[in-house]
Each structure stands twice: as C-alpha cells, then as structure tokens.
Amino acid sequence: MYKQVLSLFIALFITSVAMATTHTILVGNAGTNTFSPDSINVFVGDTMKFVHASGSHTTTSDTIPTGASPWSIAISTASTQFNYVVTQPGCYHYRSTAAGDSAMTGVFCAAINTAVNNIDPAEVVGFTPNPSTSLVKVHVTAAEAMVQLYDITGRNVTPATTRINNDITMPVAELPAGMYLLTIKNGDAISIHQLVIAR
After folding, report:
1. CA 74 → CA 71, 78, 106, distances in Å?
2. CA distances to 14, 19, 134, 155, 176 from 152, in Å
3. Does pLDDT of 81 surpass 90?
4. Does 83 have pLDDT greater than 50?
5. Is residue 50 within 8 Å of 73, Cβ to Cβ?
6. In this structure, are 72 and 24 located in the same domain?
7. Which domain CATH number covers 182?
C-alpha cells in the first residue's frame, strides 16, 4: 500500500515539476523605477525570474512567509538576472533598496498546487531549512517515524541519517540541486513534502 501511494505521489510530483512555471519580472521596465508585473499569483514550486530592463536596482525580500529564504540581489547591467524558487505558500513582498527606489515594490502570492498536497499527515512537526544546501533537520513526534528522500524520478536517494530521540538529521550536501520528495511514514500514515536542494 505504501509503495502504491508513494508511486502515485511521485507521478503527481513529476507532473507538478513539469508544469512548474517560470514568471519573468522586469526590473526597471521601460526606464521606470518599477517591477513589471508588480503583483502576480503563482504556485509553490514556480520560479520567479527577475530580469534587468534598465537602471541599477535590487530585488530585496521584505515580508515573506515563514520558512522561505530571504534574498537581496543587485540587478544591473553587471548582474542581469536572478532566479528565486518559491518554496512556501503565502505572499512575498519585495522592494528595491537602491537610491531613489523607495517606491519600487512588488509582491507575488503563492498557493499550494493540490496535485502534490499531503494525503494522510504523519506525526511530523516540521523540517528545516527549505531550500537546503547541506543538512535537513526533521522533527517528528513519533519515535518510530521513518524518513526517506526521493528524487523526481522516484529513486530513493536517502543518505545516512543521524537520529537523536525524535530529531533526525539528513546530510544532503552530496546530492544535486533540484526538487525532491521528503516522505515521513508512521505506521499507515504518510506525509509527503517538497524539498528544494540548492547550490
């Protein structure tokens, strides 16, 4: 049963990744101190692509959802593009901190694609950070809960983990950047989450 459910969600996950959208935001559009568009709705897993149009500005996170990674990147002729993968639902407010850009703001609001939503939550408190570069820490409330990691092809790539009571540490530094499925299984209950590994 577990393998059948996991296979279904891997298929849905692959479909979701395939359907993930890249949204282009022009920075300094048409010579103005604006982001264009300055407001957009997206899904978790989508990529926000900030592209230089004119001037010297920044894209700097302001108020963002809990668990999301903040950013502050200069956008100019010397650095023309920045990609940000959306990992948490909620609204991401951002701005330019360059001189004269006090009114240059934008927001994108992310919803969860229900195709990869959890089915039967296992007893899991949370995992951080997401995106991750070296270590993922998972805290569960059930001592017998099992944590595994799968790539988007469905291959089990779970590294050797360290467990102290209900805290599980998983090293991911050797895995390629990309999107993965983090599964937590406790008896017949399964919780499946998207995890982004960044480099």
Report:
1. 10, 9, 15
2. 6, 13, 19, 7, 12
3. yes
4. yes
5. yes
6. yes
7. 2.60.40.1220
